[in-house]
Hints:
The protein is mostly beta strands. The protein has strands at 17-25, 29-30, 37-46, 54-66, 73-79, 82-87, 97-101, 104-115, 123-131, 137-140, 151-158.
Amino acid sequence: ATIVNSGTATGFGGGKVLQVVQAVKTAEADLSYRSFTNISGLEVAITPAASTSKVLVLVDLSSIGTHSSMIDASLQILRSISAVYVMTHSSMNRANYVSVTGNTFGQVEKAIYLDSPSTTSAVTYSVQMMTNTAAGYLRINNNSGTNDVSSSITAIEIGA
Length: 160
């Protein structure tokens, strides 16, 4: 078979990746009880090329907690200062909890959100979390006392 290219392909629409920005955090961060806490270092700024662009935000968190039962937590993604996506303790993936030793539990949490910022001005995406369990603690990037884990936030601009 012979395929002849006689011009430029048209009619495919958007869906092109225009830019990708990422922040990786390796330092520890303790979370507050019943008060959303900014996770310093987990924020990215992106300037959309067009107001019709979408931004896909990917969050990957590593944490550890200690308690006689599972530590409940809530997570939210902010665009500038407004929450655009919230995961409560009941909607977070409980299957991601792993018993590390005794009453210590490791957790990996992922959040994916497709945003429509409708602007060509710079927008900042950040992550906040809080614990919903009074006893115990929840600490980002602590693997049973060693700093060998990391968390990240990635923003991907998708052309319309």
